[in-house]
Amino acid sequence: MKRTKVDFGYLQERKRSGEKITMLTAYDFPTAKLLDEAGIETILVGDSASNVVLGYPDTVPVSLDELLVLVRAVRRGVKHAMLIGDMPFGSYNVSTEQAIANGVRFMKEGGCEAVKLEGGGPMIPKIKAMTDAGIPMVGHLGLTPQTASLIGGYKVQGNTAKKAQAIIDDAKAIAAAGAIMLVLECVPGRVGGIIAKEIGIPVIGIGAGVEVDGQVLVLHDMLGFNLSFAPKFLKTYARLGPKITRAAKQYIAEVKAKKFPDDAHSFNINDTEFGKLYGGNA
Ligand code: KIV
To answer: Which one, of 86, 97, 173, lies nearest residue 129 by Cα?
Structure first.
């Protein structure tokens, strides 16, 4: 079946029809290619790269330049999915001019088709200014990991009427500012459902229940690289961590025991040629 290139119109049509939209993160060429070929509709080069692939303790340290290297690798692997770049902490917080300049870098240097930033309130005029500058914007509300320390840590957000209303208001303002999509992280399912109903742009949830317009997970989490990371919203679809450890241990044991490489994995030289080496004394 011929696949269409995912654009804003495609996503709007899925929202209208009620067909759920799929998103995963990716950080390198080969996995991005596999996800794209599998039919994923949107790929986010998340600032989660900071902890899941670069080994920092959380999402704050990763720089724009570090992320751009990953974005360009992912771009080379993606043909059909919409590619979204995630603005790291510090790349849009200083000023609107900084936010626009760095959003442009994601598009020109990274080949992104949209750019995501975290937060409501003071971030909303930036989303509008970036949209006006021609950058398709994705909002991110609920649990915003870059500012987790300001919102009480990595916790469910919007679980009182007042807090839920604040998120709903921000979501409406982000949509009115011209964003093309909203990521909603760790909010009660019923609050996610209200937001998806009340705003006209697709709402993609991570820990936001089934009533939103689509779902996103961090690739390394859903593939089970680190099984000790097990938040309630996460479903692990594979257990690659133990598989990789098992494969590495088997390799180490076989190399030590001279079982690898065996004949099947070695190259040969015929006896005549070998005999000529060192005047036949090899
Ligand atoms: O950085 C990321 O991976 C994200 C997702 C959790 C949506 O922002």
So the answer is: 97
The reply to whether 1 falls in a domain is no
CA-based end-to-end distance of the chain: 59
Reported as a single tens digit per residue, the pLDDT across 112-149 is 999 999 999 999 999 999 999 999 999 999 999 999 99
Q: Residues 150, 252: one domain? A: no
* Shared domain check, 125 and 254: no
What total of structural domains would you count in the chain?
A: 2
Residue type, 226: N
- How big is the CA angle at 206 (ends 80 and 165), to the nearest 5 degrees? 120
Pocket test for ligand 1, best of 21, 40, 48, 223 (most atoms within 8 A of CB): 48
Reply yes or no on whether 185 is catalytic: yes
Shared domain check, 181 and 268: no
Judge contact between 68 and 80, C-beta under 8 A: no
d(C-alpha 160, C-alpha 168), whole Å: 12
Task: Report whether 227 contacts 236 (CB < 8 A).
Answer: yes
